[in-house]
Amino acid sequence: KQWYQRRVRGGYSRADAHLLLSYSGLLNALDGVMSSDAQLVFMTTNHKQLLDPALIRPGRVDVQEYFGNACREQVESMLHHFYPDVSAEVVGEFSSLIPPNTISMAELQGHFLLHKDNLEELVGSVRGLHLVPSNTRTLSGQ
Known about the structure:
There is one protein chain. The protein has helices at residues 2-9, 23-31, 72-82, 88-96, 105-114, 119-127. By secondary structure, it is mainly α.
């Protein structure tokens, strides 16, 4: 956070030099002379189309996975995780409140954590979201 605030305010000082990483340095860390074998690197972005092709070229990035919004099965699974003794009727009612591809798993988990001790409050909070189905996206973002 500090490096970002300094960047926004208009520059770095010599004391900030240890906070900087160049693009070339990033590429070298991934697969250059100083890289290590047998490592997994996870990169995330909300805007894949803005990434430099050199960063995600084959050989540097071997697997690309799109994590979309929650499907019905994921909603039901999370409900069972937080409320193991929930009835099938409540599961059906709850999952019907959330159209597929309308909420991320992180958002959904946030609601569960806020209402982990009260299932009725959880259902009420989800009812108040007024979720609208979105188009399903693919890896390419199309």
